[in-house]
Amino acid sequence: MQLRTVGCGLILLTLVAPSVGYAATRCPPGAGGAETVGAIDGDVRLHWIDRHLSLTAHRARVWTWGWGVGIMSATLANLAPLPFVAKSQRIDWYTGAATTIVGIVPLLIAPLDVVDDARELRARVLGTNGIPGTDVCTLLADAETRLARDAKNQSDGQRWWLHVGNVVLNSGVGLFLGLGFHHWWAGAFNAVGGSAIGEAIILTQPTGSIDDLRRYRDGSLGGI
Question: Which range (130-139, 188-197, 201-210) has the least confidence?
Fold first, then answer.
């Protein structure tokens, strides 16, 4: 009878011990999150942000390199015919090359913030993973700051003035060729084509962090 009692006690201890030994890490909600966010385990929130920033950063790198290669190819395509066209027409091709190369400048000098933020956050998470005494809430606060910053950066990348600036810049190129050299057809082609490419770059910019921030604030951390 005593052995049976001891055995039942050991089984019960085995079942209960994991739940007793585990204590969720409670961290205050940041990034404008509701109080319900604070009820979610801090480790879960930290790794959710880490995973989602990494996903958006990957898309941002593909976007940057994809358009970068495309723009460089377009620039070379405008320069290649120069030896075979009349001197009076070369200004059209030079202008086309200059216009396309301008498009790559923002991609190189001002890449999306999420690229660096995701890399730095992943390094911090991996560097402290499993180390006793790690302050999860401090790491989480940093991750929340990065998520909010990246969402704003991606939102700013699609503001209305960028669309206006794109059209104005390319219209100016068209007028330069039309008024300056009476090459109205080439001017119209550059204006329309350049505007279309510029809009495509703006509209295809990754914006995943905007939706991720909204979901985080709502506490909707389920799934991918």
Answer: 130-139
Reference 54, options 114, 144, 124, 111; nearest CA is: 114
Nearest to 145 by CA among 24, 34, 66, 29: 29
Rounded Cα distance between 98 and 82, Å, is 14
Q: Which two tokens stand for residue 199?
A: 């809009």
Please, are residues 137 and 162 in contact by the beta-carbon 8 Å criterion? Answer: no
> Judging by beta carbons within 10 Å of its beta carbon (0-12, 13-18, 19+), is residue 180 exposed, middle or buried?
exposed
Q: Look-up: residue for tokens 């999306």?
A: 112
Q: Phi-psi category of 39—alpha, beta or left, where left has phi over 0 and alpha has psi -120 to 50?
A: alpha
Task: Give per-residue pLDDT as tens, 44-85.
Answer: 999 999 999 999 999 999 999 999 899 989 889 989 998 999
pLDDT value at residue 60: 97
pLDDT value at residue 24: 72
CB neighbour class for 79 (10 Å; exposed up to 12, middle 13-18, buried from 19): middle
* Short-list 54, 35, 52, 32, CA closest to 44: 52
Q: Can you give the pTM of this predicted structure?
A: 0.82
Q: Where are the domains of the chain?
A: 41-216
